[in-house]
Write a structure and sequence with these properties.
Length: about 425
């Protein structure tokens, strides 16, 4: 048995310049390390990270969470078998009286859980994705990347209401080619912008638009300007993150100074999908507007992927209970708090016929664990933010390494997780 011999917490920094938790685990000579990510547009039922409050760093320091790693988590895990992830996660979960992990801190929990997973792979001398997949030597799915071009909502001071305007390149032959295409689209979308326009939290261009639809139209035009055919090579995708602007049963589009009903929101997003070759929409309605999510999915789910993020918060029970409210689940480890809970949410998605998109958070680091979870668990889609900034490129570049290492065994997911748009439009409606 490879026992955990030591486990320590460390206070490090994330991509927003905020403290976060790193955990380092040793099993004899083998080491595993992981850093907790952090969201900005969070679902209300997510596992809860521990922040110190007070005035330092806007109350976001994590000294208590780091201390919890050393004082609570380490004594519970040292001596356990590093290969037994379920026992490790059960021990972490048992430390907290609440399923939200608020006392221990989901940031402490997720970093510890992932660090153990890395250490277990190290004891086997395998890359983490391989260690998760087991000994099978068949083809390996390399997921379709969903890459941000404009960032809005909570990631850009609410400059526009829509949070993520993204592209996917299912027509590419490989993950590497999908990145090449996306980089050209990113460049085309930024052409003519002044340097001072800057970027949003995940590296997408700052969204200087007078209306939400202008951003979608500009994105569609950038696909054409970069030389790709919308609907054939590349499709658009949106994370509306509608929970962020749902108030008293209505959707407040602050940029356009109007508020609209659930039915009007469904009509608006459905029209955008039809007009702009949008193949995937995340959280088109708010997390508490479950009937709205159901109605949107009933109307559009046979031609557009409908992803639940705030709706499901990577929670297996919620996925099973609300399986008719979307067609895919966003999978974020820190929403669940442990690797085992994350895997359970993915299994629940599969058991209910839903797709899965393994996703980063808006607050990230150089940690690449999610690349390995996505490949090791066979997820067909992967969402990380833009094609710029080191905390994002760390993940894209790691995926490139995995794809390259597989040679002919790599099978790029391409169109497999998506519906092909019925019509091909170039650059949106005329
Ligand atoms: C999301 C993520 C990534 P955050 O909403 O899907 O874009 O954002 O990490 O802020 O929740
Ligand atoms: Mg989201």
């Amino acid at each position: 048995m490879n026992a955990i011999t030591s486990l320590t917490g460390r206070r490090v920094w994330d991509s927003r310049g905020r403290p976060t938790v790193e955990v380092e685990v040793h099993s004899g000579p083998h080491t595993g390390r992981a850093i907790a990510p952090a969201g900005a547009s969070t679902g209300s039922a997510e596992a809860v990270e521990r922040r110190d409050g007070g005035s330092a760093f806007g109350g976001r320091d994590v000294r208590q969470a780091v201390a919890n790693v050393d004082r609570l988590i380490a004594p519970a895990l040292v001596g356990l078998c590093v290969d037994d992830q379920q026992a490790i996660d059960a021990a972490i979960e048992a430390l907290d009286p609440s399923p939200s992990l608020a006392t221990v801190g989901a940031n402490a929990a997720v970093a510890a859980s992932l660090a153990c997973l890395h250490a277990a792979a190290a004891t086997r001398g395998e890359p983490l994705w391989q260690s998760l997949r087991g000994s099978d030597d068949g083809d390996v799915v390399i997921p379709l990347p969903e890459i941000q071009i404009f960032g809005g909502g909570a990631h850009a001071g609410r400059r526009i209401d829509i949070q993520d305007l993204m592209v996917m390149a299912p027509g590419a032959a490989s993950f590497a080619e999908a990145l090449d295409w996306t980089a050209e689209i990113y460049r085309a979308a930024g052409a003519g912008r002044t340097g001072s326009a800057g970027v949003a939290d995940e590296g997408g261009w700052w969204p200087d638009f007078a209306a939400n639809e202008d951003a979608i139209e500009t994105l569609a035009a950038a696909v054409g300007a970069a030389g790709f055919v919308l609907g054939r090579d590349v499709v658009l995708s949106l994370d509306i993150a509608a929970s962020e602007f749902w108030h008293d049963g209505r959707y407040r589009l602050a940029l356009e100074d109007r508020d609209i009903s659930t039915d009007e929101m469904i009509e608006l997003v459905s029209r955008w999908c039809r007009d702009y070759s949008i193949a995937s929409v995340e959280d088109p309605l708010g997390e508490h507007d479950v009937d709205g999510m159901r109605a949107f999915t009933a109307a559009m789910g046979d031609r557009v992927q409908v992803i639940g993020d705030d709706l499901y918060v990577t929670n297996a029970a919620r996925v099973a209970d609300l399986a008719d409210a979307a067609t895919a689940v966003l999978v974020k480890v820190n929403q669940a708090g442990t690797v085992t809970r994350t895997r359970a949410a993915l299994d629940a998605a599969r058991a209910n016929g839903l797709g899965a998109v393994v996703s980063a958070r808006s607050g990230e680091s150089e940690d690449v664990s999610i690349v390995h979870l996505a490949v090791g668990w066979g997820a067909a889609q992967f969402k990380v933010g833009s094609i710029t900034r080191g905390e994002r490129t760390a993940k894209w570049n790691e995926m490139l390494r995995v794809e390259e290492s597989l040679g002919r065994r790599a099978r790029f997911a391409g169109w497999q997780p998506l519906h092909r748009p019925a019509t091909t439009s170039v650059g949106g409606p005329s």
